[in-house]
């Protein structure tokens, strides 16, 4: 019987010849990632051992990754103390895949894991972060879990009682028009199937548009698969996956690809042709409130944000720099740019993008989650409007329930920053 | 029988249940303070202890969408609220099972604030209006975690078994 990528990965990881949608399995974990919420995981991990004579010990220190990104540098004594506790634990348990607040190897977890070569096709990846779906871009089965579930993984090395999800096949064809890309594709899909359209299911991406898409773009669509409710987003691994892992992540040795069977069973198939797709905007206050740019252009904006685990990569910064070169951010608009990792920051610096942003009047911030989730910087004033390349626009998301967030691509963000209103990058920018 | 103390719509995100700016607070003993923090009136009622344990929040589809932050569950669990929704987002739902927050999947549920509800394993009765609704049963794999008293004790049993075996 034909199997999807998720079914194949979960069968292998659970030591089974086969697994199908609906089966309950206990997969071994290949990579377990946490960020600052590792402080809660640690608390729950110690709870597991309470009242026993067993010494708390992580099942495999080589498979645990901890990356500080949500509140870097710390915004409060509380966060700083959480980070300190985690550092001490990292040393005590000798966790190697630890990325502290650093300019060289620091950054957002969903960029650090791929660029460090920690994720491989066929892996089971869990993370205490909903955007762990990102890593499906490399052909892994990657999903977000809560802190207590991670504590259980740290103790046992498996995820307990996992129901193998059904898979939705998304076939994408057509060539993107200029200044339209992966972000517009995934926003369009979320708008079409709604924020719950893939709840408890996997989105598996196929078609010529996906096959010719670089891993950086695949990371965007898998990242935001969770905004349609998906357990995981997966691009079946291929030659591009190998290219990325070899050239950009420095991976040596054999890389085994996992591909779905041609006769795999899908819950449904969704066809998308991107050749006529316009830039897409998710309007307040849900990610599935998606409109074509033509119907929202001219909307006044106070703050533009480029960055995050969704769109803070080098190609995103390249597009933005191309639009902003020699231009100025509108005088009633603030623009904040935060590269997704130290490595990307350095590359953008070497290519002159950072200089371009600064000359244009943008503020370039340190890599991290930044203003995306309203924790410690870039908050909005009452009644203010943000246009952002991040992934969520829920009420209060950027720290103020009396503000609004629109989501878009880096090209739309850059063009709009110049005009001070939501603007179409295809018109009148250069 | 318990009373509906809050009625909400579809797609209530974890940013609404537990705003990101309180995420540095992680301990289940401390998170209840910030439940629905941006809804100042309801948050104040929760903190004044005028809402009895077992009181019900009724919501539409996709309750708990967004972040995996477990604070969104522990904050509600701390007040011993029961969440009745037409559907739940996956991570929030799993976190609820793991921490023992009572969630009830009830497609088509109709109830207003102040209504009294009676909930059994397969049926919800709005005793104020007389309407009855079907409750979706919990899958067996999730039931096992609840029956063990939550994921901590479920995992603890496994850790002990493994140690005894080896």
The CATH class designation of the largest domain in chain A is Alpha Beta
Tally of contiguous helical segments of chain B: 6
* Low-pLDDT residue intervals, each spanning 5 or more residues of chain A: none
Number of strands of chain B: 7
Strand order, biggest sheet of chain A?
4-3-2-5-6
* DSSP summary, beta strand count of chain A: 18
Order of strands in the sheet with the most strands of chain B?
A: 4-3-2-1-5-6-7
What is the H level of CATH, i.e. the homologous superfamily of the largest domain in chain B?
Answer: Aconitase, domain 4
Largest sheet of chain B: 7 strands, mixed
What general outline of chain A do the C-alpha atoms trace?
A: globular
Percentage of residues assigned to helices of chain B: 25-40%
Fold-level CATH name of the largest domain in chain B: Aconitase, domain 4
Which structural class should the secondary elements of chain A be placed in?
Answer: alpha/beta
Strand content of chain B: 15-25%
Give the largest interface pair and sizes: A-B, 59 and 48 residues
The rounded Rg of chain A comes to 21 Å
Whole-number total of structural domains of chain B: 2
Question: Can you give me a brief rundown of this structure?
Answer:
The complex is a heterodimer of chains A (430) and B (166). Chain A is of the alpha/beta class.
How is this fold's topology laid out?
The complex is a heterodimer of chains A (430) and B (166).
Chain A: H1 5-13, E1 24-25, E2 31-34, H2 38-49, E3 64-67, H3 77-93, E4 97-99, H4 109-115, E5 124-127, E6 141-144, H5 147-156, E7 162-163, E8 166-173, H6 182-193, E9 201-206, H7 208-211, H8 215-223, E10 232-234, H9 239-248, E11 268-273, E12 280-282, E13 290-292, E14 303-307, H10 308-311, H11 314-324, E15 334-338, H12 342-350, H13 353-360, E16 363-364, E17 385-388, E18 404-407, H14 410-419
Helix pairs in contact in A: 2-5, 6-8, 11-13, 11-14
Chain B: E1 2-7, H1 14-17, H2 40-47, E2 56-59, H3 71-77, E3 82-85, H4 90-99, E4 102-105, E5 116-119, E6 123-126, E7 132-134, H5 140-147, H6 151-165
Helix pairs in contact in B: 3-4, 4-5
């Amino acid at each position: 019987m034909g199997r999807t990528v998720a079914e194949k990965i979960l069968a292998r990881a659970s030591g089974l010849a086969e697994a199908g949608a609906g089966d309950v399995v206990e997969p071994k974990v290949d990579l377990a990632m946490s960020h600052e919420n590792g402080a809660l995981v640690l608390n729950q991990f110690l709870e597991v051992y309470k009242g026993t004579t067993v010494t708390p010990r992580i099942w495999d220190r080589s498979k645990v990754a901890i990356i500080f990104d949500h509140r870097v540098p710390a915004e409060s004594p509380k966060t700083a103390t959480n980070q300190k506790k985690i550092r001490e634990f990292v040393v005590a348990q000798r966790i190697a895949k630890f990325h502290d607040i650093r300019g060289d190897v620091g950054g957002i977890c969903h960029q650090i894991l791929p660029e460090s070569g920690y994720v491989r096709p066929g892996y089971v990846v869990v993370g205490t972060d909903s955007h762990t779906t990102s890593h499906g871009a490399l052909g892994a089965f990657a999903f977000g879990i809560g802190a207590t579930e991670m504590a259980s993984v740290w103790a046992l090395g498996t995820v307990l009682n996992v129901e193998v999800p059904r898979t939705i096949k998304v076939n994408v064809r057509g060539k993107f028009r200029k200044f339209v890309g992966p972000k517009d594709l995934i926003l369009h899909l979320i708008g079409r199937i709604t924020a719950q359209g893939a709840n408890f299911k996997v989105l598996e991406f196929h078609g010529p548009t996906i096959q010719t898409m670089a891993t950086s773009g695949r990371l965007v669509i898998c990242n935001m698969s969770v905004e349609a409710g998906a357990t995981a987003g997966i691009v079946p691994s291929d030659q591009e996956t190998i290219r990325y892992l070899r050239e950009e992540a420095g991976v040596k040795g054999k890389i085994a690809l996992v591909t779905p069977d041609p006769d795999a069973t899908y819950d449904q198939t969704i066809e998308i042709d991107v050749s006529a797709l316009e830039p897409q905007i998710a309007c307040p206050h849900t990610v599935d409130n998606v409109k074509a740019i033509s119907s929202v252009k001219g909307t006044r904006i106070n703050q533009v944000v480029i960055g995050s685990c969704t769109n803070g990569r080098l190609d995103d910064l390249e597009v933005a720099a191309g639009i902003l070169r020699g231009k100025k951010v509108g005088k009633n608009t603030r623009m904040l740019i935060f590269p997704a990792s130290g490595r990307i920051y350095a590359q953008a610096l070497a290519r002159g993008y950072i200089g371009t942003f600064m000359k244009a009047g943008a503020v370039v911030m340190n890599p991290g989650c930044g203003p995306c989730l309203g924790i410690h910087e870039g908050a909005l004033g009452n009644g203010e409007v943000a246009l952002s390349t991040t992934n969520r626009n829920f009420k209060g998301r950027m720290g103020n329930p009396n503000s609004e967030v629109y989501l878009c691509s880096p090209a739309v963000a850059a063009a709009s920053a110049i005009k001070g209103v939501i603007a179409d990058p295809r018109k009148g920018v250069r | 029988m318990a009373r509906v103390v809050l009625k909400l719509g579809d797609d209530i995100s974890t940013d609404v249940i537990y705003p990101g700016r309180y995420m540095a607070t992680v301990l289940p003993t401390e998170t209840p303070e910030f439940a629905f923090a941006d809804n100042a009136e309801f948050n104040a009622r929760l903190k004044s202890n005028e809402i009895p344990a077992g009181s019900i929040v009724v919501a539409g589809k996709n309750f708990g969408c967004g972040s995996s932050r477990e604070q969104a569950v522990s904050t509600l669990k701390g007040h011993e609220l029961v969440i009745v929704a037409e559907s739940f987002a996956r991570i929030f739902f799993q976190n609820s099972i793991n921490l023992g927050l009572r969630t009830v999947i009830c497609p088509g549920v109709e109830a207003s604030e102040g209504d009294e509800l009676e909930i059994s394993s397969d049926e919800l009765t709005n005793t104020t209006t007389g309407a009855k609704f079907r409750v979706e049963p919990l899958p067996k794999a999730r039931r096992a975690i609840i029956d063990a008293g939550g994921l901590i004790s479920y995992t603890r049993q496994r850790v002990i078994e493994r140690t005894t075996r080896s």
